[in-house]
User: Fold Allograft inflammatory factor 1 from Tursiops truncatus.
Amino acid sequence: MSVALSNRFQGGKAFGLLKARQERRLAEINREFLCDQKYSDEENLPEKLAAFKEKYMEFDLNNEGEIDLMSLKRMMEKLGVPKTHLEMKKMISEVTGGFSDTISYRDFVNVMLGKRSAVLKLVMMFEGKANESSPKPVGPPPERDIASLP
Assistant:
């Protein structure tokens, strides 16, 4: 029973190859943004593009280079701000200008580097602050006794 490579969502060698191919494709798009005169005055552009690529790869669940409705839903739930189906469709429409049902990496970077306030820019900022403010405890939990229980 043979399964196509694109239909396999398990880890392993095939997954590593998919991620490597995706990373090369996104790195090529990043190079286009670095060479674009429109963004030449942007501060820390290489660092920003690297961070955008990392976040985009994290939420591109199907490894096809697009964030679809379910990937966006996962992103919003991970941030603790779940949205309705209609709200997410509106977000995608705002980012793509209504031309697509998915967010491409170019659209994602354009929104993040753009001057207008967009939902994805707020999401990235919020996620960064959430990671800074609440470091996860390490090691075993502290011992508790009956008196400390509510």
